[in-house]
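Reproducibility note. Readers wishing to regenerate the assembly model reported in the main text can use the exact inputs given here. Chain order matters: entities are listed in the order in which they were concatenated for prediction.
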Amino acid sequence: MDQLDRAIINQLQGDFPVSDAPYAEVAQRLGTDEGELLARIKQLLADKVLTRFGPMYHAERLGGGLSLAAMKIPAEEFERVAVIVNQMPEVAHNYARDHALNMWFVLATETPQGLPEVLEKIEHQTGYEVYNMPKIKEYFVELKLQV
Amino acid sequence: MDAIDRAIILATQEGLPLVPQPYHAVAQQVGITPADVMARMRVMLEDGVIRRIGAVPNHYALGYKANGMTVWDVADQRIDELGELIGKLDFVSHCYQRPRHLPDWRYNLFAMVHGHDRAETAQKAALIAELLGDACRAHEILYSTRILKKTGLRISG
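Running the prediction on these inputs yields the following structure tokens for the assembly.
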């Protein structure tokens, strides 16, 4: 990763233009050309330095349900429960964390009503309680990472 | 949001086409004019349906290997004021108020903190603790030890 890659990553975290030739516009700001910028973005995605590039949609404003949930799973049961949780298509991310509440996942459902159904299904199939922690208020969601 | 907006979302949720005229490419896929695609996406940006158009860096690949979910037990009557304050810090990427589950879970403010290592993340959490002062009764940092699943949010066609 060189200086241009870093400049691209920093520049692309801001507002990308909605225009006929947006890559050419951004390239100009960066002092490079459209072809080079497109090639660099493709490479950064291929190298997994960027996980995606495009519009970030706001899940709840699309009409769906979204929540963060946690579970407290004994070590010997962890893998079995992880398989069940991960099998749910509504589970988008699932992380093991070092805490008594050791499994944390984000769920997204097509409708808000779908959320309690999935949580109940997980509790029923695993035999463990799910701690539902939907956001009450959002203070900030953005990436401000400078590289 | 109507069927055409939905078609635009389906065409772009994996990413914006990496071609010189990406909105034209989306227009062709959806079957409307490029001007319509751009007008609708501008409205979605204004309405907050699209948070922003841009890149999502992989924190881990950029050297931020200690991503801690910091959680705080903050006085309810001050949480909005303090949440706004913490959300403004440049090392916090997400900041939310969430419900407590007493007695197992006392924390009501969540802030994702990114550091190159755990020492740096802990140092940043200490800065948050300082800002919260007496309004904070307890806090913890939960590090992820393993990604069990990561597919991202998707709507279905």
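We highlight two features of this model. Chain A has two domains: 3-46, 65-133. Chain A has a mean pLDDT of 92.
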